[in-house]
Amino acid sequence: MMLPSGDEEMTANCSSSPACPANSSEEEVQLGPEFHGNLKLVFTVVSAVMVGLIMFSLGCSVEIQKLYSHIRRPWGIAVGLLCQFGLMPLIAYLLATSFSLKPIQAIGVLIMGCCPGGTISNILTFWVDGDMDLSISMTACSTVAALGLMPLCLYCYSWSWNHDQNLTIPYQSIGITLACLTIPVAFGIYVNYRWSEHSKVILKIGAAVGGVLLVLVAVAGLVLSKGAWTSDFKLLIISFIFPKIGHLSGFLLARLARQSWQRSRTISLETGAQNIQMCVTMLQLSFTAEQLGQIFHFPLTYGLFQLIDGFLIVAAYRVYKRALTSRRRNKNPGCAETCRGKKTPSPQESRAVLQGKEETTTVPGPSEAENLLRDQTIPLHVTRGNSLA
Q: Any transmembrane segments, and where (predicted)?
């Protein structure tokens, strides 16, 4: 019979004591920045279901012809990908270098800049009357492109920082994000194709649910990031200005590429709104608990500030739209009373009206042309007869 060694005896004696080093380390891990077991699972499942329902409702606004035109001529998608994986990693690198961050903190900021666009941009795009077909196609394409461009951007920008940490790309999280995006949107497109009237009701419900979800996410962000206000002040400033620079640079690049105002708004929102969950997952996979404490609050504060920026952009657009409508009414005062009770037609209704007008204004055939000529020649004979008489 073998006797237990000193280490084994000490472990056996303190296994039931709360002062045991092993037990205290487990409690520290459980109370650390990671989510608590079952709570994390419930939060993940509920958020995935809600995001899937919202994407299904937003998919009801997508038209197959417009989506195919974006895929056939992907100029808008190309500009969006350039903003997503060209501008955002560069901005993250410049911010980390300008504020002289620690290597771990700099890598955390760079990971945020290399993440693809999040689903929050699709909800905000709907509220600012953006191009929903371009928004959803950009989100899907950026998520697929993240499989290769994300590690490439991290390698190109992080080599100048001295770190021995192996960065782990969350391919499983990327796959889940892509599935939660494409499958509900495909069902929404089918519903819009078969039952266009029902899709309008589903779209309004989804927009309302999306607003409630964003409010809940903002409240959760405030609760989870309450310790971030006392953390590193540099990271707090970067999380405040980073999404604003992303929105502005994306809008300016889209305008330089001669994109329409509607597409420019869409690309701007897609550029500044990052996938926070993917950034958190990558941080958890790449860093230890001690290293994670130095950077974990950054994606939470970034997500909170990007929500606030999104609400401000939507509010500013609504105020601008209302002012523009009132200005048009003042120019045409006679139409103000009649147009006030009328409902603004949707793009689908306007397109249907234009097609109906084109069908009604047909070119007359040969028989109709002969009848018109016959009607025009009859008065001529009558006038000649009268003149001779």
A: 41-62, 74-95, 107-128, 140-161, 173-193, 205-224, 236-257, 302-320
